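Researcher: We're teaching a course module on how sequence relates to structure. For the next exercise, students receive a sequence and then see the predicted structure as tokens, so they can try to spot secondary structure elements on their own. Here is the exercise chain.
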Amino acid sequence: MKNITKTYKVYSFNELTQGIQDKVISKEIDNILKYSNYDDMSFKMKKACDKAEQMRTPWFAGSYIYDYCKDEIIEFLKGYQFLENGDMFTA
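Model: And here is the predicted structure for the students to work with:
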């Protein structure tokens, strides 16, 4: 039997490059749209989804969430660690 240890370089959200931060934010918005229940969303997220529905443009829901909730999403992401490519690190 062998024991093999792999080392990862892990970054906080703020340590990622701007391009990777944008990628991570985009992934999180996609996850919100796929997996979040409307009733469990924050007021701003509901407002963004309602705007997309009101405008009859559900395909823009992600853009509205970005516009209304970017700071909220960034604060959430600051609680996690990431690999250099933006994938969330889980131990």
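Model: If you want an answer key for the exercise: The radius of gyration is 16 Å. The chain has one domain: 17-82.
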